[in-house]
Known about the structure:
The protein is mostly helical. The chain contains four helices and no strands. The mean pLDDT is 88.
Amino acid sequence: MKAIQVTFDETLLERLDSHPAVRKRGRSAVLREAARDFLWRRETAEIDRRYAVGYGDSDAVQTELGGWDQEGVWPES
C-alpha cells in the first residue's frame, strides 16, 4: 500500500473519527472502503449509461428491434 495525504475540513474529520466503524477499523480502512464504493458506483453508472445508449429508444434500435414482442406467444401471468 502507498501512503497518501488527504485534506479534510475539521468538522468532517471530527464526524468521521467519531463514527464507531472508524474507531473499530481505523480511518484508513474506512476511507479505502469509501474509495472502492465511489469507483464501483461510477463504473456501474457508466455501464448503465452505455446500456441506455445501446438499447435506448433511438430510431435505429426501434427500426431493427421494433415489434419483436409481437412475434412470440407469451404465457398468461
